[in-house]
Amino acid sequence: MNTPRRIRRIPTCLTAATAVAALFTVSACGSGSSSAQSGGSNAKQLEVFSWWTSGSEDAALKDLITGFQKANPGVKVVNGAVAGGGGGNAQAVLQTRLQGSNPPDTWQTHPGAAIGEYTKSGLAADLSSVYQQDGLSKVIPEELVTSVSKDGKIYGVSTGAHRGNELWFNKKLTARAGVDLTASTTPAQLVAALGRLKAKGITPLCLGGKDAFATAELFENILLGVVGPSGWNSLTSGKTAWTDAKVKQAAGLFKKVLPYADPDASALTWDQATKRLAAGDCAVESMGDWAYGELLKDGAKDGSDFGYVPQPGTDGTFVVVVDTFVVAENAKHKDLALKWASAISSPEVQLAFSKDKGSTPIRTDVPTDSLPAYQQQAAKSFRGDTLVQSVVHGEAMNPQFQQSFFDAVTQFVQSKDVDSFVEALATAAKS
Ligand code: GAL
Asked: Which domains does the chain have, with CATH numbers?
């Protein structure tokens, strides 16, 4: 079987778990795992697999589960979430389960190359009947439907669109250092701002380096700020080599930014880093707007406690990270899994989910005026900006390149060797 593989990290259950995630780690890796993995015996049970275990992710996942159970009373939902931001650990667990022909009924993924791994290997079920029954094609932008489709069949339902390229900052700390971040701040000005924060004794950069995706996302965002959307598409489509001067320039900036990171970064997950920003223990974090949901969950107030701007150099471009579910072709509870796909696509469930998650509802008919100002603005950008897909979240390039990207970033954090970094990326892109 041609099974997808993405992040090589070994799931470490309790050692990988944060306190917040422990409940779910146990559910997926500990005593609950047998119930998750032998769920086939109970016809009124559905296993939902994801990596949503941080405070905001957990709340948003529960919104989906509540919506599903409201439409399907009496069905037990087994939450198979595996802790690890960006899905690092979850992907490893999922791969093992798919190889063992023991798929969860439904699992989290992203459009583009990520879902393509499941459609090309026949692991994902055709959801066209759900689209037809619920009229989804009329309310979901065509490009998004295309990005979860293959050969005329639709394989994914999406819950919300995140913006990957946002820069979050603690307002008191930036004010103390006289740093004014705006949509027109340039990448070089960001480096200078980090220096000013440091000079005031502030930890400039919040970073959850324990989640491999977080450092990779920092580079993805810096790179986009240098190459722009057309340069990004040229790189990800193979038209421009990864040894291009602009990639080197971005790597040079990344090298300048890294020393400003929280010295504890390697022990922190992305959400722990976000908590530090909220608490005033570090100043600036480059992170997708799931951080917005997390900041609110941490009790931080938009406007007074924290602010946000697009990653310097990327105003007008939206790195679209679309949370999507597939149904296993060989699901033990396929009828319920199809009902899950339908329930989580309803306007009410999409809105409740987005409120907790910080994302933008995918459906164009969901009113966004009850969402906080940040999300209303993100929803406008989502509908008006130039959209590009993420490498880090597996959309723009295949899982092999995605893994090489992670590996190259990890290596670069140690070596700071720009030439070997771009060579590694170029070699991965060629193969
Ligand atoms: C992304 C996912 C987001 C968020 C993030 C951090 O891959 O699309 O919803 O959960 O990982 O875990």
From this structure: 6-161+322-372 (3.40.190.10), 166-313+398-430 (3.40.190.10)
- Mutational pocket test of ligand 1: of 20, 51, 207, the residue with most ligand atoms within 8 Å of the beta carbon: 51
* Cα 415 to ligand 1 centroid, rounded to whole Å: 28
Label residues 11-44 b or e (16+ Cβ within 10 Å = b). Answer: bebeebbbebbebbbbbbbeebbebbbebeeeee
Stretch 207-213: mean pLDDT, rounded? 98
Give backbone dihedrals phi and psi of 349, rounded to 5 degrees, phi first.
Answer: -70, -40
> Nearest Cα to 356, choosing from 375, 339, 329, 334?
375
Q: How far is the CA of 105 from the centre of ligand 1 (A)?
A: 20
Tens digits of residue pLDDT in 264-291: 999 999 999 999 999 999 999 999 999 9
* Cα 297 off chain centre by: 17
pLDDT surpassing 50 at residue 1: no
Residue-wise pLDDT for 311-370, tens only, equals 999 999 999 999 999 999 999 999 999 999 999 999 999 999 999 999 999 999 999 999
Residue 333: per-residue pLDDT: 98
Query: What separation in Å is there between the alpha carbon of 51 and the centre of ligand 1?
Result: 8
Whole-number Å distance, alpha carbon 165 to ligand 1 midpoint, is: 13
Does 393 sit in the ligand 1 pocket, CB within 6 Å? yes
Q: Is the pTM of this model over 0.85?
A: yes
Say which DSSP state 330 is in: T
Closest ligand 1 atom to Cα of 160 = 9
Distance (Å, rounded) from C-alpha 141 to C-alpha 82? 30
Q: Is the CB of 163 under 6 A from ligand 1?
A: no
Q: How far apart are CA 11 and CA 35, in angstroms?
A: 18
**How does pLDDT run across 112-149, given as a tens digit for each residue?**
999 999 999 999 999 999 999 999 999 999 999 999 99
Q: What is the distance between the alpha carbons of residues 119 and 328, in angstroms, rounded to a whole number?
A: 10
CA of 288 to the centre of ligand 1 (A): 8
Helices (H) and strands (E) in the chain, counts: 20, 12
pLDDT at 246 over 90: yes
